[in-house]
């Protein structure tokens, strides 16, 4: 088991060390930086036109943008530079974002919030650093470290889900400057939202309808997984506890769903054996993406966890949606009129062809 050690940064933010199994007991180094007080939270506005909440985070404009390695806030601290992690070395860490879109306040949102009114942007944004090494990627992590990060995701999911007013916990990774990454150091984020996000709501409602139509006997994602496995044309990998496929109606030029075989709500609900397999299968999928072209593929790894809403939760199944806008070696898909304005995706690739390419690189480059 990986070990968790809690600490507090100079401005009061929480920092948690997740050390690989077998590591020596950690005694955290105190954060002696003279940090400014945490910024006031942004605000939330309710859009009556769509029913969506909009977070306004104007204070984030001053956040760190692609710093050089010697000023990286995610590298361990050194005698010449005090980073966000006071220790001279670490395995994986999670800490509260210094420039959060949501939080640090926690509150139930009013329902509804009138036009012209705002409330503080409640919730919590955490940063997950996967390694102390500045150059690298999740795909290149050793098995034991990937396993530790999965344990960190499970720990944070359980803890954030229990905070007042939180309705959805979303771990994700943006990889690649092409899709807006502001730090090169391998890391992900966790957003704990005080509302259900539009896309999570859309999926959760479809899942609930299917669940009800089958008398509570079947999860929609379970049914789709069965169909994909039976058909086979879009399968990428099949394990004992997880399988991955390019979904029949993929939206993105590269899109893979990694789905557990069992009905499970989130990281916190996974068994040890499931986490063990995930720690091998997930980095393997990422290596496949990187092996498709001569240069690393930018991606968004979005972990869909069941909403905390007790009506929606039983029908929703935990899974990963791994997507990339890359449609050729030197071409990215941009969300333009149809996608950005209408939410109507036009995909330049066929799911079957993408799956065949991924199976091919899995056989050769990405083992
Ligand atoms: Zn770094």
From TrEMBL:
Reactions the enzyme catalyzes: alpha-D-galactose 1-phosphate + UDP-alpha-D-glucose = alpha-D-glucose 1-phosphate + UDP-alpha-D-galactose
Keywords: Carbohydrate metabolism, Galactose metabolism, Metal-binding, Nucleotidyltransferase, Transferase, Zinc
EC class name: transferase
Gene designation: galT
Gene Ontology terms for molecular function: nucleotidyltransferase activity
Keyword Glycoprotein: no
Lineage, uppermost ranks: Bacteria, Bacillati, Actinomycetota, Actinomycetes, Micrococcales
Gene3D superfamilies: HIT-like
Pathway in which this enzyme or protein is active: Carbohydrate metabolism; galactose metabolism
Full protein name: Galactose-1-phosphate uridylyltransferase
Residue span(s) of domain Galactose-1-phosphate uridyl transferase C-terminal: 218-361
Pfam families: GalP_UDP_tr_C, GalP_UDP_transf
The species this protein was found in: Sinomonas cellulolyticus
Transmembrane segments: none
Required cofactor names: Zn(2+)
Entry annotated with the keyword Coiled coil: no
């Amino acid at each position: 088991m990986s070990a968790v050690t809690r600490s507090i940064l100079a401005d009061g933010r929480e920092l948690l060390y997740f050390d690989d199994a077998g590591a020596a007991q950690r005694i955290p180094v105190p954060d002696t930086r003279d940090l400014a007080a945490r910024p006031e939270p942004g605000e939330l506005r309710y859009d009556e036109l769509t029913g969506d909440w909009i977070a306004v985070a104007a204070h984030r404009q001053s956040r760190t943008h692609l710093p050089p390695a010697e000023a990286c806030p995610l590298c361990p601290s050194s005698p010449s530079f005090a980073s966000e992690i006071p220790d001279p070395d670490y395995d994986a860490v999670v800490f509260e974002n210094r420039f959060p879109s949501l939080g640090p306040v926690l509150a139930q949102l009013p329902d509804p919030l009138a036009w012209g009114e705002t409330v503080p942007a409640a919730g919590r944004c955490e940063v997950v650093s996967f390694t102390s090494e500045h150059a690298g990627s999740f795909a290149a992590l050793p098995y034991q470290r990937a396993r530790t990060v999965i344990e960190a995701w499970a720990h944070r999911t359980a803890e954030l889900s229990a905070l007042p007013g939180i309705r959805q916990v979303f771990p994700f990774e943006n990889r690649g400057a092409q899709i807006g990454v502001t730090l090169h150091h391998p890391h992900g984020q966790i957003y704990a939202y005080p509302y259900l996000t539009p896309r999570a709501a859309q999926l959760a409602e479809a899942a609930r309808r299917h669940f009800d139509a089958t008398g509570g006997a079947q999860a929609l994602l379970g049914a789709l997984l069965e169909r994909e496995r039976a058909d086979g044309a879009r399968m990428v990998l099949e394990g004992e506890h997880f399988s991955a496929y390019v979904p029949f109606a993929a939206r993105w030029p590269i899109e893979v769903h990694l789905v557990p075989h069992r009905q499970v709500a989130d990281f916190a609900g996974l068994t040890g054996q499931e986490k063990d397999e995930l720690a091998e299968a997930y980095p393997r999928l990422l290596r496949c993406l990187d092996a498709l072209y001569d240069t690393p593929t930018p991606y968004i790894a979005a972990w869909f966890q069941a909403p905390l809403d007790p009506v929606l939760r039983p029908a929703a199944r935990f899974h990963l949606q791994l997507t990339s806008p890359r449609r050729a070696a030197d071409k990215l898909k941009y969300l333009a009129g149809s996608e950005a304005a209408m939410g109507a995706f036009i995909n330049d690739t066929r799911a079957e062809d993408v799956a065949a390419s991924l199976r091919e690189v899995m056989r050769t480059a990405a083992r």
